[in-house]
Write a structure and sequence with these properties.
Blueprint (H helix, E strand, L loop, with lengths): L5 E6 L11 E4 L5 E4 L7 E8 L5 E7 L5 E7 L6 E2 L7 E7 L6 E6 L4 E6 L7 E2 L8 E8 L6 E9 L2 E6 L4 E2 L4 E5 L3 E8 L3 E8 L7 E4 L4 E9 L1
Parallel strand pairs: 13-20
Antiparallel strand pairs: 1-12, 2-3, 4-5, 5-6, 6-7, 8-9, 9-10, 10-11, 13-16, 14-15, 14-17, 17-19, 18-20
Length: 228
């Protein structure tokens, strides 16, 4: 369980937040993006945190009164997904683990605030503090020991086609995951199946050309093939 290699810290008392900020990010072209830019921005979004590979942002989205949910979206503000969806629970202050495998957050379920963990897709929720006090504002400490020497690259596909890598290791559909030495630049090439065309990358890559992924964290790339 990788997340146990990191130290998780939190504060012991919570103040009441009253400001209603909006968030912005600047892309590689210098454009300023306002996000979230869809229906999840019902009220004052707060506490954004980047995924380790910089392809996703997790944040708290306000709904009504003191209710709150944790949501995740793409770095450009699209594709928002609600991860908690607890109507009678206040969830806030998400923090992404440096290995990308867990998200910590504060959750008020009754009279106490506790720290919970979940997978980046919202599954596997577990409460890790059970004191009668108010535990909130989680943050991940540095990993113990030396940094990892390899990282996993996982390729998923939508539609008919294949993806190969250089250096070798990935030949997806048969072998869609491989570990590479830290710092390796892996080039992925998509080849459409008969009757399909390659329409683009998502995840750690974008566009329709070859995909170059620098392995400084575990990363996932999706290749989409469309029929016709």
């Amino acid at each position: 369980m990788k997340f146990l290699a990191e130290r998780l810290t939190c504060k012991a008392q919570e103040g009441h937040e009253t400001n209603h900020p909006q968030h912005y990010a600047r892309n590689e072209n210098g454009e300023v993006l306002e996000w979230p830019n869809d229906s999840y921005a019902v009220l004052h979004p707060r506490r954004p945190d980047w995924s380790p590979d910089s392809t996703k942002i997790v944040w708290r989205t306000g709904q009504f009164g003191d209710s709150g949910e944790i949501a995740v979206m793409n770095a450009d503000g699209t594709g928002a997904v609600n991860l908690t969806n607890d109507l009678l629970v206040y969830d806030a202050q998400p923090a992404w683990a440096s290995d990308g495998t867990r998200i910590a957050y504060a959750s008020v379920q009754g009279s106490d605030s506790d720290i919970r963990l979940m997978n980046p897709d919202g599954t596997g929720k577990v409460t890790i503090t059970t004191s009668s006090g108010q535990d909130y504002d989680p943050d991940w400490g540095p990993t113990s020991g030396p940094p990892p020497s390899t990282f996993a690259l996982t390729v998923t596909k939508s539609g008919q086609g294949s993806v190969s890598s250089a250096p070798s290791g990935i030949k997806c559909g048969r072998d869609c995951s491989e570990s590479y030495a830290a710092g390796t630049a892996v080039v992925l090439t998509a080849k459409a199946g008969r009757g399909y065309s390659f329409t683009g990358w998502s995840g750690a890559c974008s566009g329709t050309g070859t995909c170059t992924v620098t392995m400084n964290a575990a990363k996932t790339v999706t290749a989409t093939f469309s029929s016709g």
